[in-house]
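Query structure, 183 tokens:
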């Protein structure tokens, strides 16, 4: 689709519903599914999101994000398209019970990156670029984006929400919905 100059893109960012907890030897990030509760939460999102009349539904390729927006896609008769750039933050950490300490350190210094990972600043840039591109494809329609907590939080930072910090990100529910407009 072509973007009409000056026509804002309406984006609805959806953090995935409750998923299986990451653990060593468990499903990898690509295949970690929603729990039974999470599947029910995804179904419950349909009533709220269908009224937005989405014209495009796009998701991180990770299973839990796709599963969260699939019920909406079925309800409105649209496919779920996946985009690699909507994936969760690559923190450079293996699953660990004390992840919060490492995440807090990253939020305190968004430019810092662990070996093999990306910094939160890099994630913010990736999120803004990906979402701006989607808004450009929307022709003024509404795009529902299924993604992840840190991705959504850093996207909000990138679009000027100055109150988003580590505590905000940590407290974000599963699922969560945020609406933004991109011009």
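Result returned for the query:
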């Amino acid at each position: 689709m072509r973007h009409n100059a000056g026509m804002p893109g309406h984006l609805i960012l959806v953090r995935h519903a409750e998923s299986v907890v990451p653990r060593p030897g468990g499903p990898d990030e690509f295949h970690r599914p929603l729990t039974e509760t999470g599947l029910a939460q995804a179904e419950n999102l349909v009533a709220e999101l269908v009224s937005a009349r989405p014209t495009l539904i796009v998701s991180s390729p990770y299973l839990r994000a796709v599963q969260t927006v699939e019920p909406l896609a079925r309800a409105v008769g649209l496919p779920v398209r996946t985009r690699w750039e909507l994936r969760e933050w690559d923190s450079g950490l293996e699953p660990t019970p004390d992840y919060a300490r490492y995440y807090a350190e990253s939020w305190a210094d968004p430019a810092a990156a662990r070996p093999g990972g990306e910094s939160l600043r890099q994630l913010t840039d990736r999120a803004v670029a990906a979402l701006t591109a989607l808004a450009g494809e929307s022709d003024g329609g509404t795009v529902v984006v299924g993604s992840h907590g840190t991705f959504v939080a850093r996207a909000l930072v990138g679009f000027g929400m100055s109150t988003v910090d580590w505590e905000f990100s940590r407290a974000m529910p599963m699922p969560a919905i945020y609406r933004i407009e991109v011009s």
